[in-house]
Automatic annotation (TrEMBL), chain A:
Domain Leucine-binding protein positions: 27-369
Residue ranges the record marks as coiled coil: none
Keyword Signal carried by entry: yes
Annotated organism of origin: Hydrogenispora ethanolica
UniProtKB keywords: Signal
Protein name from the UniProt record: Branched-chain amino acid transport system substrate-binding protein
UniProtKB/TrEMBL annotation, chain B:
Similarity comment: Belongs to the binding-protein-dependent transport system permease family. LivHM subfamily.
Keywords (A to Z) from UniProt: Amino-acid transport, Cell inner membrane, Cell membrane, Membrane, Transmembrane, Transmembrane helix, Transport
GO molecular function, one term: L-isoleucine transmembrane transporter activity
Name of the protein in question: Branched-chain amino acid transport system permease protein
Amino acid sequence: MKKLGLLFLIIFLLGLTFEGLCAPPELKFGVSAPLTGDIAAIGQATKNAALLAQDEANSAGGLKVGSSKRKVRFIIEDDENKPEGTATVFQKLINQDRVLAIIGSQASKCSNAGAPIAEAAKIPQITPWSTNPNVTKGRKFVFRACFIDPFQGKVVAQFAYTKLKAKTAAVLYDIASDYNKGIAEVFRNEFTKTGGKIVNFETYNTKDTDFSAQLTKIRGSDPDVLFLPNYFNEVPLQIKQARQLGIQAKVLGSDGWDDPQLIQLGGKLMEGAYFSNHYAVDNASPALKTFIASYQKKYNAIPDAAAALTYDAAKIIFQAVTKAGKANSLAIRDQIAAIKNFSGITGVITYNGDGDPVKGAVMLRIENGKYVFDSAVNP
Amino acid sequence: MAIIIQQLLNATQLGAVYALIALGYSMVYGIIRLINFAHGDIFMVGAFIGFLLATLAGLPFYVIMPLAMLLTALVGVAIERIAYRKLRNAQRMSLVITALGVGIFLENIVRVLVGPQTRQLPPLLPDAILQLPGGIVITEDKILIILISLALMMILWLFVNKTLMGTALRAVADNKEIVPLMGINLNQVIAVTFAIGSALAAAGGIFFGQAYSIDPYMGIDLGWKAFIAAVIGGIGSIEGAVLGSFMLAEVEVFSVAYLSSNLKNGIAFGLLIVLLLIWPSGIMGKPMLKKV
């Protein structure tokens, strides 16, 4: 028995070295995604998009690094959409898996928890979907693939004032989340600056389900628009409770809305609502159309913005590795920072010294259960 | 004035759901002196059983409600039989830790079975908006939720105070050592307690899912809130659990309405501390220490 075990061990070890001799080691990248928890649908989309990018690179024989072609592997970990979970995932990816770069996380509160760890370990991080300005602020190794909330908040505020002719607005947002809080404050400042009036500025905490006390207050001031810069899993409930209390205001949101679950949960309630987003499926460029088609073929679902941005983040890293010509985190970081006019599927990306690209936004309208392109805004 | 009444209605609905959960905490504690920390998750299981019955089987409300209550009661009894009975005479700490473990187990099993997403129960109750005088609005399902919850609490009160089994229950709560000597089957009484507590939690879960939304982790926060409501009212007392629940809901809603939504939980739990300083065993609780 003992001999047999030894024999297997030898065969196993031989196999390992043999494999090691045959092909250059694969390039390992980390992904920190909310695979479980309250925005698990975003995590699933992140995973799908990362695996799509990985498969595309590998079916082309891998990435060209220096003189050899090397396969790509994404190590995808679940951060449960919790800051403490993200910190653990980042530490595991960096110290245990020795990844070259990390994509993630998606919610700003999580990216904010991961960023100091990536920064200290000098591992480049690209968050696809975190729009809160603090994520990249003062950091050399942290980048993002999306626009930031000061821009998004301005777009929504101006849309409300000029297009919807709103004079008064009420805001209800999650004060425990960096993203929601940041964009709510930008909206308040911009809407007031444009000439509108904020009549209610109400808060709740993540996982709250009863908003009727706040909404009863909002009903009392009868605003023209109700701005809900929250995530797709909560917004339908907030709108339902608002309508049940008889609030007639037009509803506005931000990119945290973009997930098919929004319509599944909200159904008819979502009709006629507007939100800002990174891209519009029905107003897609040829490159974006190709991505949507291959994503749909592989996963039988329409990709959300988080998926498209994840795909862009993966492509940015791939390009940086190829340009660096070596599997070295510092060199990859320098190549990412030097990216100019990278044509991603969600727009053109240029990093001007900070990790934030300058990109346009779109406003979408919900009509017959579909997202319809309304207008595009460029900075 | 209209706004105050509107807020009172909001609080009443929330309080009714808290009460349905708090009753389970209170009853189990009253009988075996166990704070069943898995109870919030039993509430979640009840909500998901209701969700599955509604979406997969497409049953109407009056079938879903009793069926989900029955199935959840079985889950509660099974948990007691498998996880708690052997530990009944063990150290109190072992029981509490087991209860916490059972809760985490339930969360994860549901997450694996149905996925982690937020769900909504299909509308089971009519939800037309009714306009009351003075600009007050209420939906039909809100009225039904409040009325059915109150009816369930009434039935429980009658059961405990007017039936033979109820008498046995109160006797066991009073003295677990002597009562079995009188020919009362202790295991049976405890099983009935878990069944009733779990069935009420299931009713709460379905109402909660009807009014709000459900996910595998919903039981954690709600469980804590209901537990705290039971403690405010005096854990072990049925009237106390109901009173504590409505008080907590009203404090929460009115602190959002007139102070700050940011401080809601801080105010609610601050109040708990103050109340416990005045009444260490809750408003309607009996003092735990007996004079010798």
